[in-house]
Amino acid sequence: MENERWIIKSEISNQSPAANQKSGKQAGFSLLELMIAMFILIILISVALPTYQRSIQHARETVLQENLWQIRRSIDQYAADKGKLPQSLEDLVEAKYLREVPIDPITDKAEWKEMQGEDINSSEGDQALKDVKSLAEGEDSNGKSYEEY
């Protein structure tokens, strides 16, 4: 019986180094597996990046529309309160109708095209700020020019 136990133990010990050698070869990734993983990663990035860029552009267009709406609302409020249109955007800031001149998110500058026109509230027909447009060139995602906002 002891001989039988000794034979079984020796057979088990003989098998384990061979099993360890096989598992040792399979412990890492092969070059082919790494190449496939990189290829899948490149495909995922090529799909996600344009979607991310479109969402950023859409957010900028939305902020541009909101900034223009706020400026135009401030011009109207200034005219209603003061009985005349402001001369510039700085007048709106000085009178605290705006905290600061908003930034155009497309150009990343606080510069706007100030549309001057006749002040109908003034008895002398002075020129004043009637509207504000973006100085950004190009079109939005719907094909509308930024200058038309």
Summarize the structure.
With about 150 residues, this protein is mainly α. The protein has helices spanning about 1-25, 30-80, 90-95; strands at about 110-120, 125-135.
Attribute tags:
149 residues, mainly alpha, two-stranded antiparallel ribbon, 2 strands, 55% helix, 10% strand
Describe this structure in words.
The protein is mainly alpha-helical and 149 residues long. It has a domain of 95 residues. The chain has 3 helices and 2 strands. Strands 1-2 form a two-stranded antiparallel ribbon. The longest helix has 52 residues. The chain is rod-shaped, with a radius of gyration of 35 Å. It starts with a helix and ends in a 15-residue tail after the last strand.
Write the layout of secondary structure elements.
Layout: H1 2-25, H2 31-82, H3 89-94, E1 112-118, E2 127-134
Antiparallel strand pairs: 1-2
